[in-house]
Amino acid sequence: MGLRERKKVQTRNALIDAALELFLTQGYEATTIDQIAARVDVSPRTFFRYFSSKEDVALSLPADSQEIFLAEFAARPDSESPYAALSASMRAMIGTLRDKDPEEAARFLKARRLVDETPALLAGQMRLLMENEKRLVAEVARRQGTSPDDLRPQFVVSIFTGLGMICYNAGPEGLDIMARRLDDVLTLADRSLRPGWDLAAADASSSAAG
Amino acid sequence: MGLRERKKVQTRNALIDAALELFLTQGYEATTIDQIAARVDVSPRTFFRYFSSKEDVALSLPADSQEIFLAEFAARPDSESPYAALSASMRAMIGTLRDKDPEEAARFLKARRLVDETPALLAGQMRLLMENEKRLVAEVARRQGTSPDDLRPQFVVSIFTGLGMICYNAGPEGLDIMARRLDDVLTLADRSLRPGWDLAAADASSSAAG
DNA sequence: TAATTTATGTCACCGCATGACAGATGACAA
DNA sequence: TTGTCATCTGTCATGCGGTGACATAAATTA
Asked: In Å, what is the CA distance from A20 to each residue of A17, A102, A107, A165, B24?
């Protein structure tokens, strides 16, 4: 890897660190791009060459974790039911996060804390989630053998997204807490849902695109 | 009602109409506050005296409908289970919308269409939803006899929120379609969930606040 | 009509975000 | 090492969103 590339990731990480630091101490809105740039000794214009917006830098780590989740999901064997694959991917994501070096894990937790206490960022995170939702629905539909326009894959994804939010948003206290919370939620789900609920049952189609 | 008040609601509605019109024809981001204000013959500064942001005017109608839902929910008898009360409130909300005068219903549908095709607004709508979520969880906890910090009321609300999103977001084509979609989703839910799933079962507590 | 309240317009200002251009710096071949 | 090229960066200018301050116009009340 050349010097140029190394410098780039270095600047990028520095910007993230500076941003998180300032956001957490002064508050998200109270922090300006100029302050972040100044702390990294970079022009404000350069900030926007690394991140498309103020929100972007705050959500870059959560966005990464979502990408990890999606990658895990895509890698699950077809033998698993949609819901089983989704649950396993969630567990795998937490595991992956835990295996990273401590520095990066700390960054992630900082970001999680920040998002948790900033409504605007919570909304942004939801937006990320929704952008991925289509991909998720498509994959679930494939596993079910139904159409992505069908109500059933959307149903499964919606249910799971709700569960994911509970444990994801409840875990700025550490990845262990988050993992435990996930277990609790999945236990609750097992108790509430009928076996095979996520498989393509008889009718209930009523396609109709959104 | 005095002239002053009448003028205010008039201006407000004019701003909403102008905004929706421009948003739908030019696109949300491509439309400026100045354009909206100009169309109503009002200074841009005045726009912000009626709406706190560009997003606010676009989401004012969806926000209203959420308020209606919450009001309906608060009015449901305690004899209903949490999930039953939530479902009934959703139906009632659609009914209330349908009973309004056609002009206002048209505005609502316009807003729904707009939100549907604008990711930023979709996210904003989710933010509104999440702001109300606490209230919802508290009410469900009361009905269950559990603590709002408990996982179970959160679980019920999350599940229902997912279902609500499916039918809500699928209905820019009219309130009738939206009602039918709701029926389909609830049917699917009845088939997937065990009877009494939304009641406070044995343990599964593991409180832990977010 | 006079006094008070309140809505509106004007002006100034800040922060976010983007395009354009010039200069600095690393990459690479001779 | 040197020269060329690609790319990163800083500076400048601009537009839009959003807010505070103040004066003016309009409605309310007496």
From this structure: 5, 16, 8, 22, 37
